[in-house]
Structure formats: C-alpha cells, structure tokens
Amino acid sequence: MFYQNDDHVYVMDHPLVAHKLTIMRDKNTSVKDFRELVSEIGMLITYEATRDLPLTTTTVETPLCKAEMPTLAGKKVAVVPILRAGLGLVDGVLRLVPSARVAHIGMYRDEETLEPHVYFCKTPHDVAQRDIMIVDPMLATGGSADAAITEMKKRGCTHIKLMVLVAAPEGIKHIRAAHPDVHIYCGAVDDHLNEHGYIVPGLGDAGDRIFGTK
Ligand code: PRP
Ligand code: URA
Questions:
Q1: How is 57-110 classified by DSSP, letter by letter?
Q2: Does ligand 2 come within 6 angstroms of the Cβ of 17?
Q3: Phi, psi (deg, nearest 5) at residue 50
C-alpha cells in the first residue's frame, strides 16, 4: 500500500519499510545491518518510484500460443548518489533497474553554515536524455539535494526524482519551493530538524553509520 500526500511528495506507507526503518533508527544496530537495510529500503522505494515507467508490448510465444505482452518501453534511467551516503542506495536501485547508468555527485557540507559544496560530478554523456533518480538517505535542510538537482539541471536533465529514506518537513518544503517539478519519494517524514541540522528522531549521521566512520 502506498499513498500520495501531495501532488509531488510520495511517502511510503508499507509495514516492511516502517519495520526496517525502526531497526535502522536504533543506535545499537550494527554497521553491517544498517548498510543492508539502506539497500533493502532503497529497493522498496525504487519499486514505487518506477511505477510510471512507460510500457509497450512485445510478442512472446508461451507454451500454449503467441501473445502480445507488456514490456518496458526502454526508458533510460540514471541513478545519481550524493556522496557519500547516497552510495548506500545505488545497489538497491540497480537490483530493480539493472540497465541504469550511475552518475556521482560529490558534496560536503560546511559544518558551520550547513551549506553544501559540490566538488565532483561525473555523469554519462547522454544524461540529459535520461530519467534521473537522485538518491540520498537523508533530506534534512534540503541544501544538498537542492545543489544536486541544480547540478543535474545545468547538464540539461528535465525528468528528476529524489529518493530519500528519511525526510524532515523543512527539507521537503525547501525542495518543493526551489524545484517544484521534482518528485520526492520518502521512506518516512520525521518530526523536525535540531539546531545542528540533524533530523529528529532520525537515524543519526547516515554516512558514518553506512561506512562505520565514527
Ligand atoms: C548528509 C546526507 C545528505 C545531507 C543532508 O550528508 O547524506 O547528503 O547530509 O543534509 P541537508 O539536507 O541539510 O543538506 P553529509 O553532508 O553528512 O555527508 P556524508 O554523506 O559524507 O556523510
Ligand atoms: N545528515 C545526516 O546524515 N543525518 C541527519 O540527520 C541530517 C543530515
């Protein structure tokens, strides 16, 4: 089951996602389990985020007869992880969309101002023709996602989706205002941001928990 609470914001309403997110939120969850859960939830959100992929038909010969059956119309997709933490979601997307290309956006946030700085962006040559799925576990102030979307738009991309595990209402508001054309897919929307820009209750620093760097 899935619901849409805004014309462009989709929040997963599924017991598996809710259950897996609760395990991720637990500060005692191991790096290994946390990493696996990021990937699994990434796959579940991808399932919903690809609901609008166009279909065509093809003829197949079943053991009984020839039949016209649905097949993907060959829409090209690029998954764009925001480094570092977004890398944790790539595998989940590729398991469902194995032909997708991967573009990387490297970004760090100034710890004082929380402003993002792009230091790397490598995309496939035909990225402007592709459906873009920007992935990051956390949408907090929205600054990083805004910068990533802006970077992809500079490269001519017009069909952009943003997939996150946990969003703050502040981040959703930011992206809706800055990029009203972008569809946002979230595992959950949490209560608020604290004074350090962390999502509450959240799950802490996603990058550190995926890569075990704390
Ligand atoms: C985290 C997260 C997002 C960003 C969200 O990355 O993965 O990219 O913060 O915050 P924002 O919405 O306020 O911009 P971080 O900058 O901690 O880097 P990391 O992926 O290397 O851990
Ligand atoms: N980045 C994270 O990793 N976690 C938060 O709660 C906010 C930003």
A1: EEEEE-SS-EEEEEEE----EEEEEEETTTHHHHHHHHHHSTT-EE-EEEEEE-
A2: no
A3: -105, 10
Residue 113: its pLDDT value, please?
Answer: 83
Q: Are 8 and 180 in contact (CB under 8 A)?
A: yes
Q: What angle do CA 142, 96, 37 make, to 5 degrees?
A: 60
The residue from 91, 205, 209, 213 that is catalytic is: 205
Tens of pLDDT along the chain (214 residues)?
Answer: 334 556 799 999 899 999 999 999 999 999 999 999 999 999 999 999 999 999 999 999 999 999 999 999 988 999 999 999 999 999 999 999 999 999 999 998 787 887 889 999 999 999 999 999 999 999 999 999 999 999 999 999 999 999 999 999 999 999 999 999 999 999 999 999 999 999 999 999 999 999 999 8
| Annotated catalytic residue within 113, 123, 126, 209 | 113
Q: Which amino acid is at 45?
A: I
Residue 156: partners with Cβ closer than 8 Å, 6 or more residues away: 127, 128
Q: Which two tokens stand for residue 177?
A: 């205002």
| Burial per residue of 113-130, b for 16 or more beta-carbon CB atoms within 10 angstroms, e otherwise | eeebebeebebeeebbeb
Tokens in use for 25?
Answer: 């939120």
Ligand nearest to the CA of 190: 2
Three-class SS state of 133:
strand
Ligand found nearest the CA of 184: 1
